[in-house]
Every structure is written in structure tokens, then in C-alpha cells.
Amino acid sequence: QVQLVESGGGLVQAGGSLRLSCAASGRTFSSYAMGWFRQAPGKERDFVAAIRWGGGWIYYADSVKGRFTISRDNAKNTVYLQMNSLKPEDTAVYYCAADRAGRGVVAASYDYWGQGTQVTVSS
Fold first, then answer.
1. Which of 31, 90, 91, 113 is 20 to 30 A distant from 44 in Cα terms?
2. Which residues lie across from 36 on neighbouring strands?
């Protein structure tokens, strides 16, 4: 059982930055993938980025590549999403998730989910 809690969302102007955090507790393994997803009103839940706890695998959606950076602090059981050059289209609820198979880039691959944190980017 893995519990995930997101934090760090808020309201920013276009071009600004935010850093999201995902604190994990419970039973985890270095082979697990930790992913970030986002869901805007009326839209599907889209993949943003993912990283394997043990390293060696990182993936980004094309829409955020070059602007967002995923990282982790294994000692703190925390995954981060640094978001720079934010655009209004980045507005969504952002979710942290864990994939036991360690390779997920779609929501259906993930087994555990946080409650989400709202990110709003004004134009």
C-alpha cells in the first residue's frame, strides 16, 4: 500500500514557475515509476512526466519537454515537478501516481494516486 500527497499548486501568471511535491509513504520499491499527470476541465487525464525511483528512466510529454523537470529525493520519499515558463494551457489539477511495473506513460498503468493539487496559470 502506497499513499501519495501532492502539494505546491497555486495561481501564477503566464511565464511564471511553480514546484510541485509528492510525498510518498507506505511500501515502495526502487523499481517503481513515479509519474505526474494533469487533468483540465472536460479533458482526459494526461501524462506529464515520470521517473523511476532507482533511476535510469525518465519520460516527458512533448507538451512540457524543456519546461518541466521531474526529480526525486529518495531519502525523503519525495518526487518533484519543477514547472517553468508556465502557459495558460498548463492549467489543470496535477496528480502524483505510482506504477509498480516501473514503466508507465499512461494513467491506466498506475496503481496508486494522490488527491491532486490545482495549478492555475493566468494570461
1. 31
2. 49, 96
Q: How many CB atoms lie within 10 A of CB 91?
A: 18
Residues across the chain: 123
Asked if residue 25 lies in contact with residue 77, where contact means CB atoms within 8 angstroms, the answer is yes
Contact 44, 93 (CB under 8 A): no
Q: Cell numbers 501568471 label which residue? A: 13
Q: Is 63 left (phi over 0), alpha (psi -120 to 50) or beta?
A: alpha
Judging by DSSP bridges, how do beta strands 117-122 and 10-13 pair with one another?
A: parallel
- Residues 93-116: pLDDT tens digits? 999 999 999 999 999 999 999 999
Determine phi and psi for 55, rounding to 5 degrees. Answer: 85, 180
Residue 34 DSSP SS3 = strand
